[in-house]
Amino acid sequence: MQTVVISIMVLAVWSAILKMTFCKTPAVWIVAAVSAVLMGLAWPWAVEQSKTQIADWLANPSLMADIAVLITVEVAVQMSFCVMFVSQQDYSRKPLKRVLFVVLNYMPGILYFFVLFSLLVTLVFALPGVSFPVISWSLAAAVMLLLPLLVWLTYRLLPDESTRLEMLFLVNLLIALMGVIATVNGRTAMASVSSVEWQSLLTVLVIVLVGALAGFYLRRLRYRMRNSKNK
Q1: In the chain, what are the domain boundaries?
Q2: What pLDDT, in 10s, does the model give residues 134-145?
Q3: What's the CA gap between 180 and 5, in Å, rounded?
């Protein structure tokens, strides 16, 4: 299970790097600077963590449930960016969506910062006898230099914008699938039942059908109104 969690961490960093290839160079340096400052100031909290922190997290069901929510939010944010990026040309007359797209564009991710903190904790226990601030600020300097370099290399290796966008979507889809494996942790979400609640099932089907029909006719009505205005 620890291997799955580490794989999610690697994918989260890769997702953040892919995401920042869509940002301008000053924005990448700003994200790198913020990350470096956070790592440089985080050593008092890092030294309070346990050496077997990941194993402790995996053994805590309530904490794993919280991590599941965090992974869901992360994947939702990144996939929303992918969807909005495809149709960004439609936002010229929609200021609210344009602002939302800008926010999603310059947000590297949530898990990315937790992964950096986990790396700092690992370095603190891997380098006994070294001053904690030295370890923390050394990692901060490495992040400040390596993050823009990795973003630039990714941009050079994958110059096609659509390829990077598709890879970003697939990476986050993989994070979501692996997150289910990691957060369930060998437990079933609910006990199986031998009977089917036909009334509840019928209610759900009716709601879905009504919603689908309403959406279909509202879209047709909106299309007709646009055509009448153009005429």
Answers
A1: 2-189, 197-231
A2: 999 999 999 999
A3: 11
